[in-house]
């Protein structure tokens, strides 16, 4: 193992991928700086899964116990009809928080854990953003929106599906983003249904609504998914996004009218296209992309967070192994990650159609299965088949060994 010193790396984005990379770079003797556009750590979002090899990365970061202490610990879920009557229940062992080999945590909690793990060793610049990047033979000259000017050896774009770094270096996101035919919105509202570690789904043609409350939460999280061709809007314009969700939910029954009133006031409102980011290359010169910025697999995959963690571990490890030679490291990082990323993206394409079933008769069939499946002797077989497919995809990116640096247990 070659240890590198004084290699400065600017990371754009302090969500999951950015702080995870900062952690590993610091471990290997690099000097990371993280710039985040938001004025403070963004804590919103839904529950996210950590499965397969990503669990090992968390163990090596020394955060697995804390993740498990903050688990959503979901008990299960049910489907309800328009009047809120239960159609069928699904225990957590089949879908939800207690699937073997699957850790589940709120995205905001995970972001907080990673930030707290790194904040003493890593420089964080909140409320700022890269304005310009100018690469020369031995570094990158960076100017920030704040007027700050700094020089770094490398720059990493870990700034999400709408990556600003990617736009600066690779061009318009329309070249890389492939809309999968649906939008997702998530926000917090009071727990009117009195749910405790339980999620409740309601499906109507082209729409799926889910309300849940996980361990330790007093409020409820609300998720809306709706089928739609690609819409044109500014992804920073939250008021327009709220209006688009209200339009798409018009005429909805069950809790939907009440939830729409809460959506209007929600201050953690999240709205985005369910889409993939597909690129031929994740790096150009001294700039490399990581996490959703490089290869968003969409929320439908349930693997975006795991891939971001694995990518951070791999990118830092390859940089250390190559003694800081970014050309060698960036190529190796892509070679290790790409097959697993593509497998998960393919799986997401299949799952997104299941989220927004388009016909009434198909929903009726789904509800028939929800009602009858838990009573059938082959319920475990079906659950196992689904679980096996997800777990195999979650193990598709290997945890490469990069040497004997202390891995926290
Ligand atoms: C607030 C929020 C809520 C989310 N909720 C969910 C969810 O409920 N379910 C789900 O599956 N996925 C959710 N995601 C996405 C999920 O976190 C990612 O799919 C996955 O974890 C990979 O993370 P990432 O770090 O690559 O990208 P992201 O999590 O998207 O993080 C990108 C980060 O870059 C920052 N950023 C953006 N532009 C700039 C800029 N110009 N300069 C500096 N920083 C910038 C963003 O503020 C953000 O902190 C959410 C993301 C965010 C930011």
TrEMBL record:
Keywords: Monooxygenase, Oxidoreductase. This is FAD-dependent monooxygenase. Residues 8-322 form the FAD-binding domain. The lineage of its organism: Bacteria, Bacillati, Actinomycetota, Actinomycetes, Kitasatosporales. InterPro entries: FAD-bd, FAD/NAD-bd_sf, FAD_aromatic-hydroxylase. It comes from Streptomyces solicathayae. One of its GO terms (molecular function) is monooxygenase activity. It comes from the Bacteria. Pfam families: FAD_binding_3 (PF01494). SUPFAM superfamilies: FAD/NAD(P)-binding domain (SSF51905).
């Amino acid at each position: 193992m070659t240890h590198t010193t004084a290699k400065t790396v600017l990371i754009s984005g302090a969500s999951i991928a950015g702080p995870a990379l900062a952690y590993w770079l610091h471990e290997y003797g690099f000097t990371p700086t993280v710039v985040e556009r938001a004025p403070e750590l963004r804590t919103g979002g839904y529950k996210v899964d950590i499965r397969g090899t990503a669990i090992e990365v968390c163990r090596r970061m020394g955060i697995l116990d804390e993740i498990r202490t903050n688990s959503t610990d979901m008990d299960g879920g049910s489907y309800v009809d328009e009047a809120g009557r239960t159609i069928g229940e699904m225990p957590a062992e089949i879908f939800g928080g207690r699937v073997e080999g699957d850790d589940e945590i709120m995205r905001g909690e995970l972001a907080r854990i990673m930030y707290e793990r790194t904040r003493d060793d890593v420089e964080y610049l909140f409320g700022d953003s890269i304005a310009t990047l100018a690469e020369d033979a031995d570094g990158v000259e960076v100017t920030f929106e704040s007027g700050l000017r700094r020089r770094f050896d490398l720059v990493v774009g870990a700034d999400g599906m709408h990556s600003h770094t990617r736009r600066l270096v690779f061009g318009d996101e329309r070249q890389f983003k492939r809309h999968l035919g649906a939008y997702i919105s998530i926000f917090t509202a009071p727990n009117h249904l009195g749910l405790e570690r339980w999620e409740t789904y309601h499906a109507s043609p082209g729409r799926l609504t889910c309300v849940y409350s996980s361990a330790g939460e007093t409020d409820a999280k609300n998720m809306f998914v709706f089928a739609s061709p690609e819409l044109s809007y500014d992804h920073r314009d939250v008021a327009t996004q709220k209006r688009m969700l209200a339009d798409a939910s018009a005429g909805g029954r069950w809790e939907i009218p009440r939830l729409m009133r809460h959506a209007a006031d929600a201050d953690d409102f999240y709205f985005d296209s369910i889409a993939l980011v597909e690129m031929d290359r994740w790096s150009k010169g001294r700039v490399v992309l990581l996490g959703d910025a490089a290869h968003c697999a969409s929320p439908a995959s349930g693997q975006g967070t795991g891939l971001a963690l694995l990518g951070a571990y791999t990118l830092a490890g390859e940089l250390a192994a190559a003694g800081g030679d970014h050309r060698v490291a960036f190529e190796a990082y892509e070679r290790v990650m790409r097959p697993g990323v593509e497998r998960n993206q393919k799986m997401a394409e299949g799952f997104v159609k299941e989220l927004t079933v388009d016909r009434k008769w198909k929903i009726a069939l789904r509800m028939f299965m929800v009602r009858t499946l838990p009573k059938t002797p082959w319920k475990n077989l079906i659950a196992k088949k689904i679980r096996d497919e997800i777990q195999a995809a979650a193990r598709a990116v290997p945890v490469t060994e990069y040497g004997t640096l202390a891995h926290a247990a």
